[in-house]
Specification:
The protein is an alpha/beta fold. The chain contains six helices and five strands; from the N terminus they run βαβαβαβαβαα. It has a single domain, classed as 3-Layer(aba) Sandwich (Rossmann fold). Strand 1, helix 1 (15-28) and strand 2 (34-37) form a beta-alpha-beta unit. The longest helix has 14 residues, at 15-28.
Length: 158
């Protein structure tokens, strides 16, 4: 059986919410596959370097200024699959967040369970198989079976 390959995960976070997020991501991603950045300069410099694979990133915008700074490097995020965590739920903030085209939008005041669930799916299910082996965590993050009706779309010949 082929072993699943886990992608590198880049984490940019600051502040108290950043510490909570970092702890949850560290429980999910193996240490050798996680790159943590506490400064925007370090994070943007990493995005400018060549990468072997298309990485997965988790980006926490701790404030509106932080979000606007992230917006200024949106061109560096073009080939990066990322989760963006917004500082608030105000309409202008959410609009800016959507303009960056993240795979998932979360919020700083949440408990980050949705973020870690989405991240787990993005890195190939490592998260789910790890949590399934831990009976204490099974009730918090249940592994769901994706059986059932799945819509299929056909391309029509023109």
């Amino acid at each position: 059986m082929e072993k699943r390959r886990i992608m590198n995960v880049l984490l940019y976070s600051t502040g108290e919410a950043g510490e909570r997020l970092q702890e949850m991501v560290q429980n999910l991603v193996p240490q050798d596959k996680l790159e943590i950045y506490k400064t925007f300069e370090g994070f943007s410099e990493r995005l400018r370097k060549p990468m072997d694979d298309i990485p997965v990133a988790v980006i926490l915008a701790a404030s509106e200024d932080d979000l606007l700074t992230i917006l200024s490097i949106s061109h560096l995020l073009y080939d990066v699959r990322f989760i963006l965590i917004l500082p608030d739920r105000d309409d202008p903030t959410v609009a800016i967040g959507h303009s960056l085209r993240p795979r998932f939008l979360g919020y700083k005041d949440s408990d980050f369970r949705e973020v870690t669930a989405v991240l787990g799916k993005m890195i190939g299910g490592f998260y789910y198989s790890r949590k399934a082996k831990d009976p204490a965590a099974a009730h918090i993050y249940p592994v769901r079976n994706m059986m059932g009706h799945q819509p299929h779309y056909k391309k029509f010949a023109s």
